[in-house]
Write a structure and sequence with these properties.
This is Sterol desaturase family protein. The chain is mainly alpha-helical and 361 residues long. It is 62% helix and 0% strand. The two termini are 22 Å apart. The chain binds zinc ion (2 copies).
Length: 361
């Protein structure tokens, strides 16, 4: 499968081009990103506010009383309840979220397709046979990972906690909006920091071919590839960074907050892999956040852009310089075309589909 960026860079070993952005450029970029979203920003803000206001209310009034009733009825130890409920949630929520994205891809509605990150056709449009092979592999790996690796991970967590899960479970100390929001922010910062370094390490030339390469078999991003990982990768890049924040917070975290964080993490990752740059994405409200375009560049080029939530570690270590050099090149080409073409130029999306003219070397 040819990538739109393939003639720019195509090996994990290639060094990023030196391209320094000044402090002011970084802030101008950030401002432009927000401006481009227009009214989408309002929708994103509404979704975010609704999530953090509704989740504590629904949880306290409807979900947690039922959870405690079930707990009373079953009389299981807390670790067993934690293990079983976490597994049931993981095995239902992720397939459900994948199904929603499947519907979006399946119907190819112009309303969604206009936000496609690149002009490259979807992989199933380009080569149906290859796509079916990849999908079959993805399904097999999914079942192995989520029915064997994930239960082992949860059980290890239970064992490590001395069969006393480090969560609050009661209704009296049910978390408020402020607590859920602040703890999700902490989890996000910790996840991003650990994910960045683990991901960077996974691109080491001696490790990459044996582990992380599997995730990069998807060169055009599609939501389901967010959980297409080698089992070691799933543990190191998926489960570990997601859980480290909780290890720090311990029993200051309610079990319900963990679900709020888990939903947030999974949906952000799916959004980042979706191949769509939806202006209403609540995750793009996060200051200095990555984006679907940002992570798509990582998959297409196999170079830089290692972060999950934020871009600042990439900026500090210069691992997003090739991406920004490419973005600047596109902007300059767009401006040139607009000057040359009477009556206007072409969209960025059209241009990214024609990389021969956008080569960085
Ligand atoms: Zn990678
Ligand atoms: Zn990825």
């Amino acid at each position: 499968m040819k990538s739109q960026y393939q003639n720019i860079v195509n090996t994990p070993r290639q060094q990023p081009q030196k391209y320094q952005r000044s402090f002011s450029q970084i802030f101008v970029n950030e401002e432009n990103t927000f401006q481009q979203k227009g009214l989408g920003l309002l929708v994103a803000a509404t979704i975010s506010a609704t999530y953090f206001l509704a989740m504590p209310y629904i949880g306290k009034e409807y979900i947690w009383p039922r959870f405690l009733e079930l707990d009373d009825y079953l009389q299981w130890p807390k670790w067993k309840m934690y293990f079983v409920i976490s597994m049931i949630f993981t095995l239902t929520f992720i397939p459900f979220a994948n199904f929603v994205y499947y519907l979006i891809y399946h119907f190819e509605l112009p309303f969604f397709e206009q936000y496609k990150v690149t002009a490259t056709p979807w992989p199933w449009q380009e080569n149906k046979e290859e796509w079916n092979k990849l999908l079959t592999k993805a399904f097999k790996l999914y079942f192995f990972n989520y029915y064997i690796v994930v239960p082992i991970g949860y059980f290890y967590d239970v064992y490590d906690s001395g069969f006393d899960p480090k969560f609050r479970f009661d209704l009296e100390s049910f978390p408020t909006t402020t607590e859920i929001f602040s703890q999700v922010c902490i989890m996000m910062l910790v996840e991003d920091f650990s994910f960045y370094f683990i991901h960077w390490f996974m691109h080491n030339r001696y490790i990459y071919p044996y582990v992380h390469k599997r995730h990069h078999e998807f060169r055009v991003n599609v939501a389901c590839c967010f959980n297409y990982f080698h089992p070691i990768d799933l543990f190191l890049e998926g489960m570990l960074p997601t859980a480290i924040g909780h290890a720090i917070l311990g029993k200051r975290m309610h079990y319900y907050t963990y679900f709020c964080w888990y939903i947030f993490r999974v949906l952000e990752s799916m959004d980042g892999h979706s191949g769509y740059e939806f202006p209403w994405s609540p995750f793009r409200l996060i200051p200095f956040s990555g984006s679907s375009t940002y992570h798509d560049f990582h998959h297409s080029n196999n170079i830089g852009n290692f972060c999950s939530f934020f871009t600042f570690w990439d900026t500090v270590f210069g691992t997003n310089s090739t991406f920004y050099a490419y973005q600047d090149r596109l902007k300059k080409e767009k401006a040139l075309q607009e000057n040359k073409t009477p009556g206007g130029g072409h969209s960025i999306q059209q241009q990214t589909g024609d990389v021969k003219s956008s080569k960085i070397d």
